[in-house]
Amino acid sequence: MAKQKEIKVDYMMKRAVSRGAMKIENYKSRWFVLDSDNLKYYGGSLERRTREKGSIPISNIRAVEAVDEGMLDDKKFAFQVVYADKSNFYTLYVVALNDDQRKQWIEEIKKAAKAKDVPFLQKYHPGVWTKTLNRYNCCDQIDRNAPGCVLATEKERGPPPESIRNQGRIKLPPSIPSPTPPEGRNNGIQKEKKFYVAAYDYKPAEDGDLELITGDEYEILDDTRDHWWLAKNRKGDKGYVPSNYVKKKFDLESYEWYYKGVTRERSEATLKADGKDGCFMVRDSSTPGMYTISIFCGEGGGMVRHYHIKKSSDDKFYLAEKHQFATIPELVYYHKHNSGGIATRLRNPPIRNKNAPVTAGFGSSKWEINRDELEIFEMLGAGCFGTVHKGTWKGRVVAVKMTKENTMSEESFIEEARTMTQLSHDNLVQLYGVVTKTKPLIIVTEFMPYGSLLTYLKRHRARILSKVATLTDMCLQVCSAMVYLEQRGFIHRDLAARNCLVGENQVIKVADFGLARYVLDNEYISSQGAKFPVKWAPPEVLSYTRFSTKSDVWAYGVLMWEIFSGGQMPYDNMRNADVVDYVCHLNKRLEKPNASPEKLYSLMIECWHKDPDPRPSFKEIHKKLSGLLEVGNYPSIS
Predict the structure, then answer these.
(1) What b/e string do you get for 23-39 counting C-beta neighbours within 10 Å, with b at 16 or more?
(2) Membrane-spanning residues where (predicted)?
(3) Quick one: the chain helix, strand, coil %, rounded to 5?
(4) Cα(550)–Cα(608) distance, integer angstroms
(5) Any alpha helices (H) in 226-312, and if so which ranges?
């Protein structure tokens, strides 16, 4: 076979093509050779070329474009060659010596591709996917194979290949889901495949689970379980993965700037903590289906501005009416390059906590933990269950509760433990598992570095009592967890500030849900043998030991009172018997804390209705609190 004529030859630098979980970016100098059929690169030095190191058929190339300055590890004069390999797409990044050399190579490769009628992609990324950010630095997508965010040169564009068709637009879910065919029938319609992208690395803890690599794509085969989904990777390997480690492909969640479920107060705290001008996030508005952009502006000592993303009559998104876009990502991309009427152009989203979220148990079916795998360190506290220690399980920091003998109804608790490990929410302290095969019984949970909410409130009372929004946000976080439990028919029975814990960034999580049923302690037992803390109990529990979600609502009202009083003891200086008389017979309630606005005290009073039914549900409380937190002045722009 005759040797192909070499069209262009140069000695340039390339970045290693990422095909796995490499954590560093490798650069090497190579001889690049372009002929009519292939783009090849060779080893060697500037003086001589050695053996071939790699080759890309021209027919496989799908894009050749410059990389924006500074995007590729601050290197200048970089360009990219996007190519197909079986069903996957890869990108070769090349660093030229100067801009002229870069332009010449882009032009020559495009000429060679055009001669073969190669179908180029309609869009490309002017930035790169980096391992330090775990996202593209141009559009903030976490998917390594995400569709491009900038239109390619018009004359180069062709129809998109079948494997990436319909990827250019991110459709928001419809407000009303399509009807589902009757069970057992699909009406001849093939079930649509579900593709997700890993947002975090995951190392399996047991057989049957599947490793996740950040940025890689996975097909979800079964998502009927809440927290563990059956997935398949590109190699065809199958196993269970934690559902909160993956994000839906082509959805807002696949963008680093989208903060699902974040309140106005928490958005301000997060953006101020980052403190960079133009730092921004897109979050859900209090109005369902609507979104808000929150931006940190450095002027005037630093403040956060909030802009509602509006929707036109023809379903276009905009901040300023003269700049309308088919999708929210397109709107964000525009305002990253043009202020377009807002206070400052968008720069980058906040740097997220690199720690992966907690999983529901250590594995898809693992809830019994081997005692030998636990390392137990210093004691953090003691309570009616026993002692709480800091510990580790296979390198992961955990909290270890070592129960005292005769403090729990162990057999009953063990029956419930498996169910409890499958309860998982951002504002619930995760129960990972239990040690039951040796004594004492050990409960292993998520570790929360700042201890109980009660202690936190007391310690920071002077600083936070003037911050109504912060205190309200604490209430909202606890309420979010209780909505989750309410929806699953799970009763806490001991909701109080002492049973909530504080984590990084003032995240509040509810702990010890359901455990009160198993306590054998006189402090929790009335004369009738019922288990409850009197000062947080409603009349029906004090009189008839009737527990329900509505008894949790009463306790939640008391917890709100604790928050707005800075951790004071409710009914201070009153004995339990006096509290029963005060609440049940005199029908009196706790007085308004000085820090509480009237609207929030009115909500507490609603929680303390003498009859359970008129008390609001946690869902209703959540809606009211969200509305109060979202109230504010939104700038109007045109």
Answers:
(1) eeeeeeebbbbbbeebb
(2) none
(3) 25, 25, 45
(4) 10
(5) 264-274
Residue 136 main-chain phi, psi, to 5 deg = -75, 135
Strands (E) in 312-441, as ranges, are 317-318, 324-325, 374-382, 386-393, 396-403, 431-435
- Lowest-confidence region among 328-332, 387-391, 512-516: 512-516
Rounded to whole angstroms, how far apart are CA atoms 58 and 81? 10
Give the bridge partners for 14, in sequence order.
28, 94
- Residues spanned by the domain of 382: 371-446
| Residue pLDDT, tens place only, 73-87 | 889 999 999 999 877
> Is residue 586 domain-resident?
yes
Q: Is 100 helix (H, G, I), strand (E, B) or coil?
A: helix
Same domain, 247 and 259: no
Residue 401 in marked binding region: yes
Residue whose C-alpha is closest to residue 376's, from 368, 387, 360: 387
Q: Among this protein's residues, is 277 annotated catalytic?
A: no
475 and 622, same domain (yes or no):
yes
Is 240 exposed, middle or buried, given 0-12, 13-18 or 19+ CB atoms closer than 10 A?
Answer: buried
Rounded-to-integer distance, Cα 381 and Cα 512, Å:
14
As given in the structure block, the two tokens for residue 92 are 């070769």
Q: Which pLDDT tens digit goes with each residue over 349-361?
A: 998 766 788 888 8
DSSP run (H or E) holding 124? strand 123-124
Q: Evaluate if pTM is beyond 0.90.
A: no
Query: Of 155-159, 372-376, 406-410, which one has max mean pLDDT?
Result: 372-376
Which tokens belong to 124? 């490309």
φ and ψ at residue 317, rounded to 5 degrees: -100, 145
Which structure tokens are listed for 334? 């525009």
In the prediction, which pLDDT does 400 show?
Answer: 93
Q: Give yes or no for a contact between 555 and 496, defined as CB atoms under 8 angstroms apart.
A: yes
Query: Where do we find the tokens 């509006």?
Result: 310
| 526 vs 7, higher pLDDT | 7
d(CA 608, CA 592): 13
Residue 291 banded pLDDT, cuts 50, 70, 90: very high
Q: Is residue 597 part of a domain?
A: yes
- What distance in Å separates the CA atoms of residue 487 and residue 550, rounded to the nearest whole number? 13
From the list 143, 209, 284, 494, the catalytic residue is 494
pLDDT confidence of residue 575: 93
Do both 276 and 301 map to the same domain?
yes
Q: Are residues 589 and 495 in the same domain?
A: yes
Quick one: average pLDDT of 284-307? 89
Q: Are strands 8-15 and 88-95 parallel, antiparallel or unpaired?
A: antiparallel
